[in-house]
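Dear Dr. H.,

I hope your travels went smoothly. While you were away I took the liberty of generating a structure for the chain from your last submission, since the lab meeting agenda had it listed for discussion. I wanted you to have the full record in hand beforehand rather than looking at slides cold. The sequence, exactly as received, is reproduced here:
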Amino acid sequence: MTTSSRPIIRLDRVSKHYGDAVRRVTALDDVSVDIGAGEFTAVMGPSGSGKSTLMHVAAGLDQVSSGRIWIDGVDVTGLGDKELTELRRRRLGFVFQSFNLVPTLDVAENVRLPFLLGGHKVTREESAWIDRLVEMLGLGDRLSHRPHQLSGGQQQRVAIARALASRPAVVVADEPTGALDSRTGSDVLQILRGAVSEWGQSVVMVTHDPVAAANADRILFLADGRVVGDRPAMDAAAISTTMLGMETAA
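The corresponding predicted structure, in token form, is as follows:
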């Protein structure tokens, strides 16, 4: 299922099991899917459908039980921890529901954290990009603030700035609006949408919210660890109807 000439993430017959042979739980069951470069892809499904597991293995955060995964052309299936960590740092940006900001660092330091962790000196061009991001995200007057001095929406904006700062190949967002009110959540989704349409990023977002998923170019529906639907952009009402049908069938 290829949506562009160059997939940014490719899963080939990927399965993920937990537990032993007696109590084995299958979270992903022989999944093959391509995530298109320069696209906003939403991943949806009922609780326990495997959507979070899909995101974790697709981002190199968890090992697969079988199958292979490529991220930006790199086969990550057999990579060791050090190589995986380096690849995630260089090619992936992460936005989580819980923000995951470092409480002892101010906004400026949190945004530049990927560079600090990698021991990479920020170039003049990278610094200009970060300054532009900070301005676009409305964080210019918050750079010296610590996370506890910010609202939830501001903290999520910092997390997005951090995710985009190193211009990664793909941004992975796990329920990025789950802890936000609807207005702030809408702002965050517009920023992610802009990352795709204006800056050429690729975004993969796991969400249970049809309104959030309606911002995507493509929606993957999961059930029982399998991709059961692969649809182009849909409005929130159509997504809700599809989800309701899946839960009724289950």
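Two observations you may find useful: The mean pLDDT is 90. Residues 94 and 128 are 21 Å apart (CA to CA).

With kind regards,
E. W.
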